[in-house]
Fold:
Amino acid sequence: MSLVIISFLAASCSKAPETFEKVAEPGKAPDFNLRDLQGRALALSSLRGKVVILEFWATWCPPCRESVPELNGIYKKYKGKNFELLGIAIDKGKNAPSEVSEFVKKHVVIYPVLVDDKDVNSAYEVSGIPAMFVIDKEGKVVKSLAGYIPGIGEALSKEVDALL
Structure:
């Protein structure tokens, strides 16, 4: 049983292909209303008019940890420029919020982090993490990436620049 769980975790948490995949037919990003680590509610629809990057991740995922410095850089670069970056932790269980809070403090995550209610990653059909979705100002998912690639910050900058 534990071998099955380890195999699943290894398969679902991985390095990525070399680039973002363009979404063939950009569709409306599924709306959600989740709470941040301070308990404040945030609806994706409240960010309409901004370019948004969603990153689905978990505290137990090594490539997710690797992405934090690059995502912090993107957040700093575009903060206040019709842009938002949201980390959505998919950790489960009653201790998930405290585990996610500890991770955020330990790894100095500076962008907003929300805790998934189990429905949001399903709505986005997340099959591996980290998973990123680039959403344009009209609220449409235009690019996606499953996994982590070194230099993700540069790739994300190009995507954001093209949409701003």
Q: What stands out?
A: The CA atoms of residues 52 and 95 lie 28 Å apart. The two ends are 48 Å apart (CA to CA). The chain has one domain: 2-163.
